[in-house]
TrEMBL record, chains A, B:
Record-linked PANTHER family: HTH-TYPE TRANSCRIPTIONAL REGULATOR RUTR
Residues annotated to bind DNA: 47-66
Example of a GO biological process term: negative regulation of DNA-templated transcription
PROSITE patterns documented for this protein: HTH_TETR_2 (PS50977)
Record domain HTH tetR-type: where: 24-84
Protein name according to UniProt: TetR family transcriptional regulator
Region of interest (Disordered), residue spans: 1-26
GO terms of molecular function: DNA-binding transcription factor activity; transcription cis-regulatory region binding
Species this chain originates from: Billgrantia kenyensis
Keywords tagged on the record: DNA-binding
Length: 225, 225
DNA sequence: GTCTATACTTAGATAGAC
DNA sequence: GTCTATCTAAGTATAGAC
């Protein structure tokens, strides 16, 4: 007869691939697709169906791998927070302000550059009142800001920079560096381009570094203590 | 019998109010409620039901007044664009750079302050790829940016400010001034407050003006040509 | 381990009672 | 002019076939 075996019927999988590899690949594609969809529509606006279509899988497959919509969303938020934490290196009062601020601006720009959907996902979460991130903001992130702010103040006391409000300086850097990713549609619409290139990112980084350092009275890197 | 007239049955309206007044009041409350809900959840994430509850009206009443969800959303976007256009006064090369930039920062801050939900509504629209605002961005707004950018360049040629990229300067001001409204949840979470006061807004305005003007090599207002 | 079929809820929108 | 009742589509989630 013309019967085919069960395994032949049910595997649109490439030869040589084990079950574990399929799971890994599917999970990765679901996560990527979900990050795009959640970033674009927000938590409520995103549908599991839309995520499944973006990933090229049936809807129930997404739920099978991820459990439920909420868990998938939380997992993506946590992944983005982990990326963010990975570049939060410690600084000390004895570091050079110009070098620290430049590195801060540059690493923040590159994070948004590498993960624009993650950046927009985070932005949408905050825009909606941060229902899933309240604890993170009031805990870890608040402490991070507090310690940096203290160091900026000490730099100002030592005359290494102007006595600007350190918390608002941090917010200024965050907003400026995220803007080109979160508001990409606006940037592209106004500039008339169809993408932001690596060269653009480098120019923006230099522009922001120059304006913010000069604006805070910080001497450029390498001009001595 | 105990019959009441039709009009008595159907008006939870205050005495002395005409039909026109009810409509006006209901429409206003729906618009305010919808701005909050759309700002929080985005276009797709917002439900007519949620808007109706926020406005204290039945769902079909919202649709009766506004036609459909899409029309309501577009109307709110256009209202926000109108507010924005209202403060886009013309500037000339002969104006004082410091005064113009300070007024620009201040008016932008106040727009976000007065209409935080409108600001977040706009942000959510851009975040989602600006599906309803493509034409506005590529038309009116692009022209606005182009003319300002040209003037900033001429100021730089005259030595009134540093030769920074004028378009990125405009984006920097936009991002910095919108941040405290759009990312209010983050600002409050990190600073540990429960609201941003008028005094905070004034402090932020001064901080941004100082840093950006100094950062671009613009002399403070009143220091002569 | 994967997908089809389906249960159950909520969505946007409208018809018709009042 | 306003609201209740209802239609159809789409939402999340699960049970069970394969």
């Amino acid at each position: 007869m013309n019967d085919v075996t069960e395994s032949e019927l049910q595997r649109p999988r490439q030869a040589g691939e084990s079950n574990g590899a399929t799971r890994e690949r599917n999970e990765r594609e679901i996560l990527e697709a979900a990050e795009r969809i959640f970033a674009q529509y927000g938590y409520r606006g995103a549908s599991v169906q839309a995520i499944a279509e973006e990933a090229g899988l049936p809807k129930s497959n997404v739920l099978y791998y991820m459990g439920n919509k909420r868990g998938l969303y939380v997992r993506l938020l946590e992944r983005m927070m982990a990326r963010w934490n990975a570049l939060l290196d410690d600084i000390s009062v004895d570091d050079d302000p110009a070098e620290v601020l430049e590195a801060f601006i540059r690493s923040k720009m590159q994070l948004s550059r590498r993960h624009p959907e993650g950046s927009r996902l985070f932005a949408a979460e905050i825009l909606g009142g941060a229902p899933f991130l309240q604890d993170y903001l009031r805990g870890e992130l608040r402490e991070w800001v507090r310690t940096r702010a203290r160091i900026f103040e000490q730099w100002a006391e030592r005359g290494l920079m102007d006595p600007v409000d350190p918390v608002w300086l941090i917010f200024l850097i965050w907003s400026a560096t995220q803007h080109y990713a979160d508001f990409e549609a606006q940037v592209l619409g106004i500039t008339g381009r169809d993408e932001i290139t690596d060269a653009d990112v480098e120019r923006i980084t230099r522009f922001l570094t120059q304006v913010i350092l000069k604006g805070c009275g910080v001497r450029p890197p390498g001009s001595g203590a």
